[in-house]
Design goal:
Layout lengths: L11 H13 L4 H37 L4
Helix pairs in contact: 1-2
């Protein structure tokens, strides 16, 4: 594919990776970049959500164990 992804200062290795993934998944380079970014965002949100739930559970257990609570 001769289409280029226009993101400033993106390492050439990353562009090549996105190009290969796009070819393997039969997508344009831009479609593949969007898909990869969406997957990364979902992963990040999932991680933040699970950490938040863990912290809330820990704090909830701490509050429940306090006398007079």
């Amino acid at each position: 594919m001769d289409v280029d992804l226009f993101i400033k200062k993106m390492p050439h290795v990353v562009k090549e990776l996105i190009s290969r993934e796009a070819f393997d998944n039969r997508r344009s380079i831009n479609q593949e970049a969007i898909a990869l970014l969406e997957e990364a965002l979902l992963s990040r949100v999932g991680t933040v959500t699970s950490k938040r739930k863990q912290i809330e559970a820990l704090l909830g257990g701490y509050i429940d164990s306090q006398p007079g609570a």
